[in-house]
Amino acid sequence: MPSQPSSILAAVPTSFLPSLPVRRLTCTAWRPCRKRRFASTTTRLLHNVPILPFRFETGIGLFAKRPPRPFPPPFLSPPSTSFTDPLSTHHQSRDRRAFVNGQLIKGKTNGDDAVYASDYFICANDGVGAWATRPRGHAGLWSRLIGHFWSSAIEEELVGLPRSQEPNPIASLQSAYEQTLEATTSQDCLGTTTACGAQLHYKTCTENEAQASPVLYVTNVGDCQVMVLRPSTEKVIYKTVEQWHWFDCPRQLGTNSPDTPTDNAVMDKVDLEVGDIVLAMSDGVIDNLWEHEIVARILKSIKEWESGTHAEAHKGDRAGGRNGGMRVAAQDLMEAAREIAVDPFAESPFMEHAIEEGLASEGGKQKRQVSKRESKANSSRMRGKRSKQYRKLMEQFSQTFGFREPYQVLVDAEMVRDSSRFKMDLEPALSRTVHGKVKPMITQCEIRKLYAARNEPGVHEAIDLAKTLERRRCGHHPDDYPEPLSTQECLRSVVDPKDTLQNKHRYVVASQDQEVRRMLRGIKGVPLIYIKRSVMILEPMADESVQVRAKEERSKFRAEIKNQLGKRKREDADDDEKADKKTDNNSEEQKPKKKKGHGPKGPNPLAVQKPKKAKTEGQQPRKRESTDAKDAPQEGAGKRKRRKRNKATAADDGEMDTAAAEVTMAES
């Protein structure tokens, strides 16, 4: 089994961007928590930090596998023994606060990770938990100090930053890295951490300097992630790219690490709009939840909070996530990731990555390390488990949306190029993924894109592969469209030509473009396939398709419990004519079964004495029996009627019988 390091999820701060009026810059009297009652920052900013036109509404969600390791001296202040010190008896919860260079360490600790959030800056640092096995290993201290010195450097830069100059987050991170090295080296505290942060700033319009727009400066080192979500379009407009040395070994800052912010940190500028959501997440979130799950969870929490249907919603201004909405969204996201992390049978992005690397892994990532010495039997078992899930998923698509073999698979140009680059047989790989016969198809626009890039290396092989695929007419003729349409527009016109959000022709789409797959998740009943690190992956059923399937299952359940009302049968005939027309089947109608009543039953038939037959005084002659049999009506002719005979006739018959008996005796 893989080893279990310290913490399972790092901090998950989410931030919202409400509109605030541009206020006059001041350096004496501004305090964010006093002036803005809805502010939810973890720490107060410096008094002389200028007021910017925009700010964050923040919230934090934390979950750790175990409590954080205590900081060693001198970073942890001893409890006070003086009764005059307000930190001794009156505030016992603040007795042992963490200090560095005489200052309180900013932020919060979560296992080996740390998080910081303020009006203008958020960050999430993921400490490497393997240092917990070392006597002097303190990854949590390293991640906390990096966040403290980084935020302090940004605040100091804002104080003296000219209005026309842009901030430099990488320089601030480099300064924080050097100060952390200086503070920990003298105390022999070992550790490493990844770091990601988002600094909110603004830019002014060249035509009108009074008009400003928000800008986000994102800095990343390692595998933590900053994601920007736009609720108005429900799309991810930006996210950072992970930095790796190799699988499960990200770039990191600290002891014996060759990485530094100046050489390895990446900084991006993102133009924001009022209302955008910014998330800073550790790998504990992105390794357990797919991107579309994160987006759906955040949007759902925000909508429930603003509408007042959330369990923690209260009266007051809830617009824009104010008064606790961001905290609720962060905690909901953390809870969703925690459920996957503690489930040993859950399928997660981390499990997919481990399988792609040929390693064995089950369930969500609870901050585990995967060993290459795992047996090959475990790896093959996991591949078999994934194959079984894919087969079950395609069966669900077949039952709900009517898919059948051969499956029509729409392939884009990037899928063809990647399959050619990985030396992958496209059609057999698709057949193994969907567990059935396939018919790969490519549109005219995608073919034109390949021909346009034929001078690039490796494209000739991709073109030869695309020629073997069936051509799907998309209707975008070169005469009408000199330039080929984008993959998103072309595939949407083929899959959903009438914008009904229905996959009428039951296409399976194999695309490498994340935006295309995100768009197609909104169309009901579209299986999505992509290649990641030479492994073909079938995405889980999207939420829209899951809702359709659940609705159909509920309708089937209701259909089974409905009473089946049949036609009323007539029991008796109204007259003799209708009785004569009855068929033999109607004459042999079954009697209705009597319901078994409750209470005492009759005697046991096996214990009851058999009734005795009553003896008749005289036996009738056989001739009389034969006569009666002749007179009896045939079966099915109605009720038998007895004939009335006169007394004289009866006496004559008796004499004849007696005489016949005497003659017989005389002859014998």
UniProtKB/TrEMBL annotation:
Main subcellular location: nucleus
CDD domains linked to this entry: PIN_ScUtp23p-like
Swiss-Prot/TrEMBL GO biological process terms: rRNA processing
InterPro entries per UniProt: Fcf1/UTP23, PIN-like_dom_sf, PPM-type-like_dom_sf, UTP23_sensor
Residue span of region Disordered: 358-389, 545-668
Keywords: Nucleus, Ribosome biogenesis, rRNA processing
Localization of this protein: Nucleus, Nucleolus
GO CC terms in record: small-subunit processome
Protein name in the entry: U three protein 23
